[in-house]
Amino acid sequence: MACAQTGSGKTAAFCFPIISGIMRGQFPQRPRGVRTVFPLALILSPTRELSMQIHEEARKFAYQTGVKVVVAYGGAPINQQRMASDFLSNYIFLAVGRVGSSTDLIVQRVEFVHDSDKRSYLMDLLHAQKANGAQGKQSLTLVFVETKKGADSLEHWLCLNGFPATTIHGDRTQQERELALRSFKSGNTPILVATDVAARGLDIPHVSHVINFDLPNDIDDYVHRIGRTGRAGKSGLATAFFNENNTSMARPLADLMKESNQEVPDWLTRFASRSSYGGKSRRGGGRFGARDFRRDSSYNRSGGGGDYYGGGSSAGYSGGYGGGYNPGAASAWD
Predict the structure, then answer these.
(1) What class of enzyme is it (predicted)?
(2) How far apart are CA 247 and CA 274, in angstroms?
(3) How far apart are CA 9 and CA 203, in angstroms?
């Protein structure tokens, strides 16, 4: 199992060897006379949208081999590690780079905006983007909000004010979500208002701006959100609206921005100096993804769980890169 920074090409890293192995006939084939059809590879992802994206990419490369790759929605990475422990023998766990951190290709801006002023400030940003866009066109903008109801309300308001927008969240049907993503990617509705359903793994080309209209409560969710831009070596912009309701995020946000060589506003530094550490613990790095489940003391009944973040030794474990997924976190579909 491998973990790496968001936007670093993980899908290609595991898809290419799988497809290559299938096309070269390296995987076990179905015995003659056996009529049962079975896949040669199984890929699990944390969201349905990401499963569909991976399946589409795999289908492009593997069309000559027939339908032999199955992509499924497997829930959180901690659930997939449990399944790996059931089906694999002492699997290797590898963390590449600083998991849970952001890239310096994404310019991060944090603005102090009261809740009552958020829509007005958003409108100013969108007008400025449109004025600076090619031939006055609106560049692709992903706006993250906290609730499904808030997403629908903001979409309606944007459309009324002349900004074509669509939404993606857990209350929309699968067909509606697919149509929304296609409309956004094509530029027909260049603004996508979304909950965290769209935060993880989705690779949407040409997203120039990610706006955290509502900041999440966890720094790792923030990292995944802004990771929808600045992908594959391209630059991107991320703007976050911050106010007194987000004080628990002040310190981790300021630390992340410093780590990514971003300019931290003085007022955010002051908030950070007097706030408790918000979100999940970042002991040495982000907790999403980079935790080997086998080192969890609740899993290792012999009491040899050790520290998630390095120290000690475990077969195949690459420690020292930072945390892991929080098993108590709710699914993006809840």
Answers:
(1) hydrolase
(2) 9
(3) 10
Q: Is there a single domain that holds both residue 246 and residue 134?
A: yes
**Is residue 229 situated within a structural domain?**
yes
The stretch 314-319 carries a mean pLDDT of: 34
**Contact, 278 vs 259, CB < 8 A?**
no
Joined together, the tokens standing for residue 35 give 């009529």
Domain that holds residue 14: 1-101+285-334
- Overall size of the chain counted in residues: 334
- State whether 97 and 172 are in the same domain: no
Cβ-contact 292, 308 below 8 angstroms = yes
- List Cβ neighbours of 288 (8 Å cut-off, separation of 6 or more): 77, 99, 100, 220, 223, 224, 323, 324, 325
Do 141 and 257 belong to one domain?
yes
Q: What is the pLDDT of residues 101-110, one digit of tens each?
A: 566 788 999 9
* Angle in degrees, 0-180, between the axes of helices 148-160 and 118-132, rounded to the nearest 10: 50
What CATH number did the domain enclosing 182 receive?
A: 3.40.50.300
Q: Could you tell me which of 244, 245, 242 has the C-alpha nearest to residue 256?
A: 242
